Amino acid sequence: MTRDPRRDAFEALAREAHEDLPTNTAQAPTLGDVIAARFGRRDLLKGLLGVAAIAATVAPRAMAMAAESAAAKMPDRFPFPELTAAADETIHVADGHRADVLIRWGDPVLPGAPAFDPHAQTAAAQRMQFGYNNDFIGFIPDPAENDRGLLVVNHEYTNPELMFPGIGLQRARNGFPGMTRERVDIEMAAHGGAVIGIARKDGRWSVVPVPEARRITATTPMLLTGPAAGDTLLKTQDDPEGRHVLGMVNNCAGGVTPWGTWLTCEENFNLYFSGALEGHPRAAAMKRYGVPAGFTAWSRFHDRFDVSKSPNESNRFGWVVEIDPRDPAWTPRKRTALGRFKHEGAGNVVNSDGRFVVYQGDDQKMDYVYRFVTARPFDPLNRAANRDLLDEGTLSVAVFHADGTGEWRPLVHGRGPLTPANGFANQAQVLIEARLAADALGATRMDRPEDVEVNPKTGRVYVMLTSNDTRKEDEADAANPRPNNVFGHIVEITPDGGDHAAERFAWNVLVKCGDPSVAEVGATFSAATTGNGWFANPDNCAVDSEGRLWVSTDGNSRGKTGRTDGLWGVETEGDGRATAKRFFSVPVGAEMCGPYFTPDDATFFAAVQHPGESEDGRLSTFDDPSTRWPDFTPDMPPRPSVVAITRIGGGRVGT
Ligand code: FEO
Ligand code: CA
Ligand code: CA
C-alpha cells in the first residue's frame, strides 16, 4: 500500500507536536470577556497598538491612515537594509553583513577527534566532535583579551532520519526499526553541549584549540544539588543517594551568569522515557510532565530510560544545569532550587539589591512563567562566593491579572496550598513537581513560554510566547488574548519599582504576531512593519548592549504561518514600538536559535538548528534531504551549525 508522503512528513513533525501537547488540565480562571474590556480600556488608549489589535473589525482604510502617520514618526534604531523574506536552501543576512559558518555537527572539539564521516559514525567519535542541533549559545570573553573567548553551545536533540543513512523516519509504534545500540549511543553522545575556544583575527572568528574544550553528553556525570538533592523521589537503583545523575538531555536555551558559568536548561526530557506506568502511585504527576513519551529508542538499550524499570530516573531530568566552562574538573550541577519543568532558558539579571534573578519559561501549551531569586547577593569581587548561589532562593510563578498588573506567587512548602494535606510532602516535592505546585497556586496558563529576557537598559522583561493552537474561545485571557493562537505573541513585564525581586509587576502585550495584512490573524505589528518585517512564533531572543531587542523564531513555514524562521530586530520604544524588521534567514526546515552578541555587538552568533527537517508535507531524510546546507556536497547531509555574523568593514551588527 502506498503511503501518502504528506502523512509521513506530518508524522516526522509529530515529535514537535507531541512536545507541545498541553498536559495542564488545571482550570485557572480564564476570562473571555476580559479581552473586550482590555481593548476598550488600555490598548485603545495606546493608539496604534490598539488600532491593529482590533484589525479584524476595522476598515482597511483606517489601517492605512495609521500606517502613514506611524511611518512619519518612526525613529529607526535598526537602520540596516531589510532582508527580503526568503525560503530556500541556504542562509541569508541583511546587506552590509556577512554570515560565516563557525562550527558544524561533527567538526572536531577535542584533540584527536576523527574527521567527520556521516557514513561511518561511531559514538566514540561523536563524543569528541561537535554535537547535533545546536541551540543556546553563550560567549564568555577571555578576561585578558577582547578577541578570544569560550563559546558554550547546547545540543538539544537529534534527528535520526537526517543523521543516519538509509533509515528514514523512526517511530515508536513500529519499534524504531533502524535504531541500533550504536546509533542510540551516537544520539546520546550528540546531545548535551560543547565548550570550544574561539579567536578573532581581522574581524573573523575561528575555532582554536584550548584546554577548556569539552563535550558534555547524555552520559556525563553530574550532581543534583539544592533543596531536592537526596530526596527519595530522586533515588534510583544506580544512585541510592539521589545525588548523582548521568547526563543532561534536550538542553534548549540557557544563560551565562555574571560569574562566568553557563546555565543550560533541560526542556522536553519526557521524550526520552518509555515504558508503562500503570499502578504507579505517581502516575498522575508524571503524566503532568508528559512522562513517558516514548519518542526515542533509548529505553531499548538503557534501562534507566524505561519508567517501568526505573520510575524515578525521569525526576532527575528537567532541571537547570550549571557548568563552569573555565573549570572542566568542576562537576556540572543540576540546580534543583530553580524547579523542575520543561525549561526553555535562563534569562537573568543582578537585581538592584545584588540578588541574582533568573526568569524562566516552561515551554508547553498552557504552562507557566517562573522567576527564581537567590537568597544571597552576587559577589562581583569573589567568584568562589558565587559557587553555590543557585542552591538557595525562592522560585515563584507568574499570575497575570486582567487589569495589566501581575504578581509572583512563591513555591514555598507550607505556604498557601502547598501543604502535606494537598499532597506536597516537603520542599523537595514542591520543586520536583513544580508544575503541580504552580497549578495549585493558580498560575496563569500561557501560550508556550519560551525565552524570558531582561533588557538591562530599561529593566523591562520580555516573554516570548510561541503559540498555542489548543486555546479555546472561552480560554482566552488578558495575557493570552487569542484563541487558537497559531502565531504567538510577546508580553512585556515591568517589575514594580524596577525591583526584579518585587512581588508585583505591570505587564503589556508588546506585539501579537502573524501577518498583519490578514485581518483575521489579528497581528499588532506597527503599521510601519513591512511585508518582510512581520514574523510569527517568537522563541529565543537577545538584547544587545544598546538595549535593542532581537527575536528569533521557531515553527514558521510557508504552509503554516506564511513565513520561514529567522531573526528580526524589534523596536520596543517610542512611536516605532512593535515595528519588526527582518535581518537573517535560516534554510528550509531549520529553526533559528541562540542569538548571542559579543559585548562589543560586533559579532552576533546564530545557531541554525535542524536544517532540512521535514515541513509542509516535504518528507526530508539523510538520503533525500530538503537542503544540504552548509556543505552542499552530495555525500554530506544537512548539518546543524553555528554561524558568526559580522558587519562588513566592522562595527556594530544591525546598524
Ligand atoms: Fe527547545 Fe522551546 O524550544
Ligand atoms: Ca527554543
Ligand atoms: Ca523551539
Describe this structure as you would to a colleague.
This protein is of the alpha+beta class. It has twelve helices and 29 strands. The strands form five sheets. Strands 14-15-16-17-18-22-21-20-19 form a nine-stranded antiparallel sheet, with no helix packed on it. It starts with a helix and ends in an 8-residue tail after the last strand. The model is unreliable at 1-19 and 28-73 (pLDDT under 50). The chain binds MU-OXO-diiron and calcium ion (2 copies). MU-OXO-diiron is lined by residues 156, 252, 267, 344, 363, 450, 539.
In summary, what is this structure?
The chain is of the alpha+beta class and 655 residues long. Residues 252-253, 344, 450, 539-540, 554, 593 line the site of one calcium ion.
Number of strands: 29
In angstroms, what is the radius of gyration?
Answer: 23 Å
Strand content: 25-35%
Strand order of the largest sheet: 14-15-16-17-18-22-21-20-19
Which ligands does the model contain, each kind named once?
MU-OXO-diiron, calcium ion
Major β-sheet profile:
9 strands, antiparallel
Flag low-confidence runs: 1-19, 28-73
Estimate the mean pLDDT confidence.
90
How far the N terminus sits from the C terminus, by CA atoms, comes to 56 Å
Structural shape: globular
**Count of alpha/pi helices:** 12
Helix content: 10-25%
Structural class by secondary-structure content:
alpha+beta
